[in-house]
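Re: your question about histidine kinase

S., sorry for the slow reply, the queue was backed up all week. Below is exactly what I fed in.
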Amino acid sequence: MSLRLRLTLLTAGVIFLALAAFGGLAGVLLWRIELSSIARQITAQADALSAVARRSPGALPDTADDLLERDGITAVGRVYEDGVLIWAGGAVASGVLDPDFLIGRQPERLSRTQGYMVASRRFGSGPDQVVVQVGRSLLPLEELLARYLLIAVLVLLLLSALAGAVAALAVRRALRPLDRLVRRVQHLGTPEPVPGINERSEVGALARALDASLAELRAERRRETLFVASASHELRTPVTAMLADLQHTLARERSPQDVLAALHRTEKTAGRLRQLTGNLMSLTRAQHVGERQAADLLDLAGEAVDLLQPLALKRDIDLWLDGASTPAQVDSSLFAGVLENLIGNALKFSPAGGQVNVRVSPLHGGALLTVEDSGPGFPPGPLTEAFVRGVPGSGSSGPEGFGLGLAVVRQVVEAHGGSLDLGARPGGGARVQVTLPPTPGALPARETEHLVDV
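Result:
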């Protein structure tokens, strides 16, 4: 069942119930008002007939019939003396109007019995006891109420059908923007704007949320397309180089020295492929960050610095670590990869005799990690458009690109709720800053700082 039909039926049902309740309440009120009016009339008539019976004991004058007529309606009158009917007037009726009162002791009573409303009065004592009863048949009132109910039901059905039609038109008009949204969602690839963005209703809020989601999806698609292209390029280049080297070596007889040199080149290329595939695996893992543990980023940075000591010594680069104890809740294995990528890239792009500075410090309850180098710096453009480091424009062959390193770093940092900022170091070189948000329950920070030169 569609939403439009459900809303129409719900609206028509609510209107039907409201009208039925109103009609039923009106019928009950009409019944009670008429009963109250009849009760007042026959009570007054019984009192008047009792007064006449007191003045004329034994026989009532003919004018007593006039007391039983009111507004063109004639009531039934009975006068009993010592249980014997001595006078009957007014409308025709059979039997005693209220037999229980006739044999009882009450001085007066208003009752409904045998389809009549009866007002009874008693006066006198012993054999001179007189009972006066005046009654009105309720059959005309019941017939009137039955006609009212029939008309009310017909009017109720007619009004409900009319209300259902109006509700269907109103619901259709209200859901028209939603229909346009549905058609737009069915064609997500089209550049048309999302309809209903400027509306202030719930549909407008949905349209604005959908427009924001589509913008994010388009941006994510662009990032994924660029990432796949860059990853393909990064993987294809070493594979092509390794295959060409092997084909060249196998093309003719080679000396053992040449074969050994080719194997060393192949080993280096295979190592680069392993790094690239490792980055791809890290990037996939970053989509689903594992359980986060309390860790000290200064300790993690120290482990990464220790791991990269041989590379720093080999390239004749000074590697410095300083900062304060900085607690955080992170996936330690993934964040260790972040530190190794950032420090490794800084070492790779720093010239011999250069310097790489790593600093870890608390920041408003969170953490700030800074890595600076003395290399050529970053090229202009956002991170998603720069998967490789810039090289000097002099035409000299600079160091190779860093592959998927920054893509991995960005994904892991954002998965932890942080941000990655690429910039320039004063005096030349690149600066990378990783900011992590505050973490409840983090370890207290130590105020001491550490300085390590590798």
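The first strand starts at residue 69 and ends at 70. The chain has nine helices and 15 strands.

Happy to talk it through on Thursday.
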